[in-house]
Design brief:
Number of helices: 2
Radius of gyration: 16 Å
Number of domains: 1
Mean pLDDT: 80
Strand order of the largest sheet: 1-3-2
Length: about 90
């Protein structure tokens, strides 16, 4: 659920290191697991669990009875991660 920002004092901008991301989108009546599970499996088989952050987001639905959900993993470009991504 979104929260309303009452003032600019509640907003913070920070610089993050350069990152790579992967994402998967699913559209269905209950798409969360359909979108998240392949992303988690990729992270595990790539040996990147513990080095990445998982995010999820409901997106505007295509149809009234279906929902679009996107799961995304972001990984900073540390040498260890770059080596695993290139294999």
């Amino acid at each position: 659920m979104h929260q309303k920002v009452e003032s600019l004092n509640e907003v913070r901008f920070i610089n993050l290191p350069e990152m790579r991301m992967i994402y998967n989108t699913a559209v269905s009546e209950s798409p969360e697991e359909e979108a998240i599970n392949p992303v988690i499996e990729w992270v595990k088989t790539s040996g990147l669990d513990g080095a990445s952050r998982l995010f999820g987001s409901n997106e505007n639905p295509f149809h009234q009875e279906k929902v679009r959900f996107m799961a995304m993993v972001c990984m900073p470009l540390f040498p260890k991660i770059l080596k695993r991504l290139s294999t």
